Amino acid sequence: MFYLGRVLNGYGREVGYGIEIDDAGTLARLLTAEEAAAVTAGLAAERESRGIEARAAEAFGLGADSPRVRRAHVITPGLVDIHCHGGGGFAFPDNYAEEEIATAIRTHQRGGTTAMFASLVSLANPLPQIEALVPFCERGELAGIHLEGPYISREKCGAQNPEVIRAVDEAELRSWLEAGRGWIKTMTVAPEAEGAQRAAELLLEYGGKPSWGHSHGDGAVTRAEIARTLEVARRHGYTPLAVLAGAGTGAGSGAGADARQAGGAGTVAGSAVGQEAAQTVTHLFNAMTAFTHRAPGPIREYIQAARRGFISAEVIADGYHVHPDLVEDVVDYLDELDLGAASAAELGIPGAFFVTDSLAAAGMPPGKYTLGGLAVEVRDGACYLEGTDTLAGGASVLADQVALFAGRGKLTLPQLVRATVAGPVYAGGAWDAPGVTVDFTPGKPVNLVAWNEAMAPLAVVREGVEISHS
């Protein structure tokens, strides 16, 4: 099977002009421009030798839209979403029968998200949901689980049930981590929550990490928790991005501008493979103390920590949660990290990345849904707690966000790829998860999205199998 078009890897670097997938679903080769042209010429010659018209040729499987060849404007790895509550009419916190979970996952896969975390919300007892999700992780249908609460701020709970929000309970959290069997990869915790640092320590001990957010804390508290978590993470083998960048290029490298000009991912791209963020930020700007010029609060701390490579920041880039101008400013600013030796464009790991925060409404028409037992309604493309103006998760798939910002034209395509592939993979430590391709490597299963000129998915391949095409 051939997919023809300009190929970018997960770091946003151009690596070819087509992809050939063998019958086993693994990458046979990346095509050069000449090889891609030869495939096209071969099809034309075959049509001519048979003496048939183009329309008839397509019926024989020889045309551009045949089962043998897909033509695209651009081809990227499959997208990765590490904050997603559901889709297709079902939300993981509320609908956790096997077929309901499978439907939610398939909704995002068909939209181009080939790897994802399943997110829960604050619940009195999340054990039944955790136990229902673990088999999907073990089968490779999910890359992990994200717990969003309950150790968060009541004042900034957003669309979560304030009645179940509580202080950190070490025994309770340990029981969830044990039940998660290593699949609980991130957990949203408010930095000011009682016991927040002990929660961070436990999460790191079990192979997860804290995701700071849903917070009414100030900048000082946030800064202190980020610093303490970095120290604990180092004891668990965390390597700061600045060290990885320095190892790749040496101090004082001047290659950054050249790498950005070429579309990113220069000499140190790949240095972060197998590494992961020590901590993340849950939907930067949303459900946290607001930024003001006199009290910049946690938002400034998160942005500056991300700039230094100490944290990775989620952004819900659906056009509703954060103004598009601000999304572009932050993504652009955090695409050139202050790492001393190399930029994010060289390393291929941005400081900010996209998430959907989607609930059951993703892939569904406007209407009423449920999230964590609370009634939610979709109006004009956005999700709200019923009868209020409080945003309650999203209704997009990641490909919608790529299309939105590609159409605006301010972020480059390499930046958008980093924000939806390498960025979330590094943030969640999902390098080896089924559904994840960062570099297209011969002999490895292929995960890709083939896009048209409007940056809408034409075809989606997951683990070598085409699961969607138009």
Task: Give a quick precis of the structure.
By secondary structure, the chain is an alpha/beta fold. It is 33% helix and 21% strand.
* Strand proportion: 15-25%
- Give the distance, in angstroms, between the N- and C-terminal Cα atoms: 16 Å
How would a crystallographer describe the biggest sheet?
Answer: 8 strands, parallel
Task: Estimate the helix proportion, in percent.
Answer: 25-40%
Instruction: Please tally the β strands and state the result.
Output: 20
Q: From the helix content, strand content and strand pairing, which structural class follows?
A: alpha/beta
**Gross morphology:** globular
Q: Give the assembly state of these chains.
A: single chain
Uncertain stretches: 50-65, 247-267
Order of strands side by side in the largest beta sheet?
A: 5-8-9-10-11-12-13-14
Q: What is the CA-atom radius of gyration, in angstroms?
A: 22 Å
Tally of helical segments? 15
The averaged pLDDT comes out at 90
Describe this structure in words.
- The chain is an alpha/beta fold and 470 residues long.
- The protein contains 15 helices and 20 strands.
- The protein has an eight-stranded parallel β-sheet, sandwiched between helices.
- Helix 4 runs parallel beside helix 5, helix 13 runs antiparallel to helix 14 and helix 14 runs parallel beside helix 15.
- The longest helix is centred in the first third of the chain and has 18 residues.
- The protein starts with a strand and ends with a strand.
